[in-house]
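Quick one: structure tokens for this chain, please?
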Amino acid sequence: MKKSMNKMKVGVLFSGGKDSVFAAFLAKRKGHQISCLMTMESQNSDSYMFHTPSIKMTEIQSNAMEIPIIFKETKGEKEKELKDLEKLVKKAKKDYGIQGVFTGAVESVYQSSRIKKICDDLELKCFNPLWKKNPEEYWEEIFKNNFKIIITGVASFGLGKEWLGRKINKNHYNELKKLQKKFLFHLSFEGGEAETFVLDCPLFKKKIKILKGKKIWDGNSGRYNIEKIKLIDK
């Protein structure tokens, strides 16, 4: 029994940001078969559970990885959205035979506990490979594994309009560390200080090129709307 639990068919709760993509990367590295990606489309930009910027672009990422993706819409109402998530996971279990779920949860007990309960109810294993991961070590792994990431949303003092659409290289990361020490936001953006989108990583058979995007700024926060992208050879 133990041997069969080591490697299994899994689904990944997928937003297109660095955490869910890195969780997928770790699932593959551990030898699991990623049978599908599962994406929630929330109508509530302030959802307690789900990332919203660029969420419709996850289909392009699934094409880049050549992994199927399934979607479920939700109004994003607190707690009620969990019923929609359960339906999505149940569909993944039925259609793709998943035995476990990988998430990009880092520190949110609210998120992780609720996902764990859904998995328990559906008799699925729940994996949170980034849980309580040291932010600086995490970023080092991101760079080491050649993840190409842009910022698609900011909502923190210290992070202004100039960060929207910016690719995070090591120089920008060093700048982020200085800002984090001054403004005390979470370096992994776990508190919603920023949202990200992955353009390339080892899972991608092709990489993503942004052809058109637009910055939208509203007082102390903003987002970068990706309007047109395409896949190109690596």
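The longest strand covers residues 206-218.
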